[in-house]
Amino acid sequence: MVADPSPRLKPVESGLTDAVFRVRGLAKTYGAGEVQVRALHDVDLDVARGEFIVLLGPSGSGKSTLLNILGGLDVPSAGVIHFHGQELTNATDTELTTYRREHVGFVFQFYNLIPSLTVRENVALVTDIVANPMPVDEAIDMVGLTPRRDHFPAQLSGGEQQRVAIARAIVKRPDLLLCDEPTGALDYQTGKLVLEVIAKVNRDLGTTAIVITHNAAIADMADRVVVLGDGCIQRVQANTHKRSPSELSW
Ligand SMILES: Nc1ncnc2c1ncn2[C@@H]1O[C@H](COP(=O)(O)OP(=O)(O)O)[C@@H](O)[C@H]1O
Ligand SMILES: [Mg+2]
Fold first, then answer.
1. Among residues 21, 6, 2, which one has the least CA distance to residue 131?
2. 71 in ligand 1 pocket by Cβ < 6 Å?
3. Alpha helix stretches (DSSP H) within the chain
């Protein structure tokens, strides 16, 4: 029997919610026996389409674990996640791979660009495996790197390399942009430029964005700030006046 090359998540309870994510009772425990680490517990969260969420919390509070589970890179130990009304927590490995490929753009602290390829080539790599990619030059323009598109990663600054990573994440037109400390290796000013680009993607393409940061100063650019501590949500703060990073004074 030949496996379906692109199995989709099975629709359940259609019309359940227009939320991108509906998360209930999410928990993640790593390890076994006496070395168990409870990384997440009792997490309930709804994420609306087009929302910009900043995830704050001290090191070890479960931020990456939550982001990785939402992005289909890791699976929870308990709880349920619906993605557009479809249950993600039932998905097989193959379905999760399809989910990541079709719906999720990831940006990490380190850029993971291929050194021997130019900016255009790094971004173009992704377009072979998705159904409806954006033109490569459009993605590069979106992150402000058109003049550098024929350069190699080593010829770019850290902030520019991170913008290439963002172009690579958005060229497949993902529903979600998940960023784990995208400015962690950058100075404040450069980090601010990178955050501007993420805010612009969220605003202009309507991509739902969840961004982890250690820096509470960027919280004002979000629709909501979700604060994690000891593996659960400590508080959620909605911003009535969302500001662009350039308006922030840090
Ligand atoms: N693969 C893993 N195996 C064991 N423990 C892990 C693993 N990943 C994360 N943890 C633990 O889970 C907790 C939450 O980690 P993490 O989600 O990375 O936190 P944060 O991103 O907020 O710093 C930490 O105590 C961490 O050590
Ligand atoms: Mg982390």
1. 6
2. no
3. 63-70, 93-103, 119-127, 136-142, 158-170, 188-205
Q: What is the pLDDT of residues 102-132, one digit of tens each?
A: 999 999 999 999 999 999 999 999 998 888 9
Report pTM: 0.91
Domain-embedded: residue 199: yes
Ligand nearest to the CA of 62: 1
**Number of domains comprising the chain:** 1
Q: Is residue 106 part of a domain?
A: yes
Residue 173 lies in a domain: yes
Task: Decide: 105 in ligand 1 pocket, CB within 6 A.
Answer: no
* CB distance 60 to ligand 1 below 6 Å: yes
Neighbours of 183 (CB within 10 A): 26
pLDDT digits (tens, 9 = 90+) for 153-174: 999 999 999 999 999 999 999 9
Residue 179 is part of a domain; what is its CATH number? 3.40.50.300
- Nearest to 236, CA basis, from 64, 55, 48, 66: 55
**What are residue 230's phi and psi, to 5 degrees?**
50, 35
Radius of gyration of the chain (CA): 18
189: helix, strand or coil: helix
Which atom of ligand 1 lies closest to the CA of 59? 23
Q: Which structural domain range is residue 146 located in?
A: 49-74+92-247
CA of 135 to the centre of ligand 2 (A): 32
Strand order in the sheet with 21-30: 37-47, 21-30, 78-83, 86-87
Note the ligand closest to the C-alpha atom of 36: 1
Does residue 59 have its Cβ closer than 6 Å to ligand 1? yes
CB distance 62 to ligand 1 below 6 Å: yes
